[in-house]
Give the backbone structure.
Amino acid sequence: MIKTTSVSFAYPGESPIHFPDILCEKNEHALILGPSGTGKTTLLHLLGGLLHPTAGEVLINQTAMHELRGHKLDTFRGKTIGIIFQKPHFIRSLTALDNLLLTQTLSGRQHDKSYALSLMDRLGIAGRSDKLTHTMSIGEQQRLAIARAIINKPALILADEPSSALDDQNCTSMITLLQQVATEEGANLIVVTHDSRIKNMIENKVYLT
Amino acid sequence: MNIFTLSWKNIVAKPLNSAMSVLLFALSVGLITFLTLLNHQLKKGLDNNLAGIDLVLGAKGSPLQLILNSMYHIDAPTGNISLQEASPFLNPKHPLISHAVPLSLGDSYGAFRIVGAPQSILSLYGATQVEGAMYREDFETVVGAAVAKRLHLHIGDSFFSTHGLEDDPDLAHDHGAPFQITGILSPTGTVLDQLILCTPQTVWKVHEHEETDADHEGDHEGHDHEGHDHSDHAHVHTKLPVTDIDSSEVQLLSAAIMDSLRSQPEKEITSVLMKFRNRTNFQALNLLRNINMNTGLMAASPALEINRLYAMMGSGTDALRYVAILIAIVAAISIFISLYTSLKERKYEMALMRVSGAGPGVLFRMILGEGMWITLIGLALGILAGHVGMHLAGSILERGYKYQFTGILWVDAEWLIVIGSLIVGFLAALIPAFQGAKVDLHKTLAEG
């Protein structure tokens, strides 16, 4: 369950942005919509623990994330939150599989190669495990990014404009895949986008203005 | 995945970025290692050859030259001294001098010096084992291990000496008796390995022969081909057992030679190596000054002269060492720059690692690890290069310095190189590592 209450954030020297409250019950997904410059990415980063809210509360499965700092926050983020970014970035020097294994290790878990491989299989990129990420197609990279976001069995999956670089067909399959994976993992999915193609795919919507 | 494995993969993924740093580091470490090995072996060689000798007596000239010539056999003699002048110091009952070993130089064979000396020279340098027999009669020789090896000499071989201390076939004494090899010394690690030993009388005879040669040309026809030629029986060598040198035999033989020398005061020798009975004796300490002021001879102290030599050589190796340290600084800057630029390229990667739960410390260790990998590879290559270089240079140096150089050794000072390099590498990586650890998550990820 994700719950935010009167969250606001102010960049240094700027007036604070006030965000609408978000409530996501277990297994619910949400869509955060709004034109550019309305603080979509800021809200995503607040939800992901990459920024601290100036005021307000962010509860993730009963943990008050806005109160966590430093090492505790890093560990919590690693274990609880998976983030998919607009453009898939990976550690260039590592293979697809090693990128997943590193993500496991960094969150403080033992690495589990067979789980990582089964995840790649589930996402249709089996056989790509030994490839360097920049040699994979953009579609494969998107799938690997999803695999990375969910490999630590997070409670919350955040996706930042995941479909902006995709054509209609890939956009639909990407969002479908995300929803399906989130549901299978029992995680809340929150997608931030200005892409109107997604609007009808997720029920729960939050509009930023 | 271990964070240092990640560091390693980051280095390997962009080998050219790190190659320059590795190369510079290896160059600097290699140079310092080479100098360290060289200095160590030079010093050890010089020290080994000190052989407890307290004073060297010779003709007036440069004291350093006298020492280099008489003890290291690498410079020309200062001249000859008459036995008459030297005989007081050859007296076994001399109150201050316990050992006196007269040397007669002048000839060589295959660029190795022939030294006429009583057999007691062996105990002076601590030679304990010999293959074959001791030299007893004139023209019998015992050769050092390196001489035998280089010139492929065996017991029973014979050769004609060359006049002078350089290898010049035009100056070969092709008349007179040839030298007969009776023994080959086991390696001693001293200059003895590079010498051909015979009785002092032999050296005189070679030259007397030459002086009278013109007058009695006909007399020597019978001698001309008397000796066996070295090549005649090159393949029928039998190896004799290596036995301990019998010290009482050496004493007896030496005593006989010394008696004979003292009975011919008109003859000349090159120098005398001397050991004091008691080094702290006040009179012994004054002997050097007394000889130099009150006699026509010159006395020189090996310890003093060798320290002077160290000081002279020191400034040369110091200069090289400074160059090496300069290269080390450039190498450190190069590590710094290569890490710093890669930091900018990989900011997003590092932010991603933070997102996955890595604290700033993980990023710090990763970048530090990259610097340390570069350092370690450079260090390993440099140490290897220093040793290989020393080994290759060894054979050249051996001819010049008359003792052995090798690249296959490890001296304690090399640990200092290892530790110093690790510290330099650590410091070079420190600032990039701090920068990397401070990556601003929100800003970096928002910029994409």
Observations:
- Chain B is about 55% helix and 15% strand.
